[in-house]
Amino acid sequence: MKIDKNIIKELSNYLDEFNLTEIEITEKDTKIKVSKNNISISNQPAVTSTVLNNENITILSLWATWCVPCIKELDAINEVYEFWKEDIDFNLIAVSVDDSRSHRRAQALVNGKEWPYKILLDVNQDFKRALGTSFIPQTLIIKNGKILYQHTGYQPGDENYLFEKLTEYEN
Fold first, then answer.
1. Integer Cα distance of 51 and 40 in angstroms
2. Each residue of 94-153: pLDDT tens digit?
3. Alpha carbon of 45 to those of 53, 69, 75: distances in Å?
4. 158, 73 in Cβ contact below 8 A?
5. Max Cα–Cα distance, the chain, nearest Å
6. pLDDT at 45
7. Element (H, E) at 121
């Protein structure tokens, strides 16, 4: 998810103009909270409804900026992402579990990488806890509300196995 810096700047100016400390915007299931030099986005309800009730295959990847294997996995998937999309109809959602102290680094990293997938922030790690996972990278394949595949960690080449699993579960 790319966040337009102009919108953040406009909202920050609005805060100054009206002497406010915080603005909270809610659209559908996404909540955006902007305060001085800070923005947080909460999408857990959107992720849950999108992922768990979707007939399409969804890859869900939990990652963090400090997790080198996480970045390597998402970069490796990025290299083959367009080829995969030609063969299989799937969604990929990468959920950063960076905490409130490091979530800005996640936003900067995502903007720099320009990953084509949907990126969400789980600043309080509520979604991670709801999945019952402790370790990252954590990669899941979900379809029709069921976790069909789950893998922890990353080694070069794991993306090839992930693609095999995608093709297996496509039908």
1. 21
2. 989 988 888 788 888 888 898 888 888 887 787 787 777 889 999 999 888 788 899 999
3. 12, 27, 27
4. yes
5. 56
6. 46
7. strand 118-121
Listed in sequence order, the residues at least 6 apart from 22 whose beta carbon sits closer than 8 Å to its beta carbon are 15, 33, 34, 35
Better pLDDT: 86 or 18? 86
Q: Check if the beta carbon of residue 140 is closer than 8 Å to that of residue 150.
A: yes
User: What would the pLDDT profile of 33-59 be if each residue is shown by its tens digit?
Assistant: 555 544 444 554 445 445 555 678 889
CA distances from 25 to 11, 35, 110 (A): 10, 11, 22
Contact 74, 63 (CB under 8 A): yes
Burial of 23 (0-12, 13-18, 19+ CB in 10 A): middle
**Rounded to 5 degrees, what are φ and ψ at 34?**
-120, 130
d(CA 117, CA 134) in angstroms, rounded, equals 23
137 preceded by a cis bond (ω within 30 of 0): yes
Distance CA 29, CA 26 (A): 7
Which tokens in the block code for residue 82?
Answer: 């367009």
